[in-house]
Amino acid sequence: MSIEVKGVTKRFGDFVALEDVNVSIPTGQLTALLGPSGGGKSTLLRVIAGLESADSGTIEIEGVDATRLAPQKRNVGFVFQHYAAFKHMTVAKNVAFGLEIRKKPKEEIRDRVHELLKLVHLDQFAHRLPSQLSGGQRQRMALARALAVEPSVLLLDEPFGALDAKVRKELRDWLRRLHDEVHVTTVFVTHDQEEALEVSDEIVVINNGRVEQVGTPDQLYDEPANDFVMSFLGEVTTLGGQAIRPHDIEVSTSPLLDRAVEGTVARILRIGFEVRLTVHTLDGEEVHVQLTRTLANGLGVREGGTVWLTPLAGATIMPTTASVGGHART
Predict the structure, then answer these.
(1) In 137-229, where do the E strands start and end?
(2) For the segment 126-164, what is each residue's pLDDT rounded down to a tens digit?
(3) Is 272 domain-assigned?
(4) Helix axes 91-101 and 135-147, enclosed angle (nearest 10)
(5) Domain assignment of residue 28, yes or no
(6) Residue 309 burial (CB < 10 Å; 0-12/13-18/19+)?
(7) What whole-number distance in Å separates Cα of residue 147 and Cα of residue 78?
(8) Does 163 lie in the same domain as 307?
(9) Other CB atoms within 10 Å distance of the CB of residue 60
(10) I want to staple 247 with a disulfide (CB 3.0 to 4.6 A). Which of 66, 102, 106, 290 is the partner?
């Protein structure tokens, strides 16, 4: 395993940021640490990097006990949300910085910088200052700088959090392609469920300082360990006293099945190709349903109309608790 986190606990005064955390991250994998704000994911990343020290437990990187090693001796690259660029240095100088302080030969530095800027599609901007780049370009520069020293592990702390939605989407796609090219073990922190599901090989869900579940995106989405994981990775509603995803509900305008739940359409909201229904059932539940526009038009659903709701075959269903509401957690 590339990274082994064993029994790590970290407190800040009376606040328990991490409690007995155990995680194994294989070599060459892209792993997301996903969870709500304050859940402990950034603290775990900083403990792995050596920027925070654990109160108890151990960190192994590439088979070496790194628990008490200084950050610069762990061979990790760290990318912060806000780039941390040297404003007075050109893009090329920013990327070269780590190599220069390691006193690498000038020719080796020049070749490595050129290679990396080409890899991140910034070779034409080598002589610009960071202020002359867009937010997405500055983040790509930060990634190139972190990769320059050939780290065994690349750590990213909400790397796209400061960018708008369109740029974030573009950089997610780019990060996945970059990882497939360089194959460095990568761990990134995010609270964006779509980002984690789209980019990562594996997701570690962290909440209140504890690991809730570890698995592939498909495993976590289709087989959540508990209602928190289910509600955090995608929207959740309730039907017949059970938690279910809104897109896993079949809508009919006639009672085709005995177990169908009758209700009245209280609201119809169209968002692009998707139609969202709010249905009030006879039992007093407010159920949220997602349909395609084509299906909604074919059914002829209308506000005030009566519909019958049934879970689709194979739907993920879980008994509800107080933590599962009508909307996804964010």
Answers:
(1) 153-157, 185-190, 202-207, 210-215
(2) 999 999 998 888 888 988 888 888 888 999 988 777 677
(3) yes
(4) 20
(5) yes
(6) buried
(7) 9
(8) no
(9) 16
(10) 290
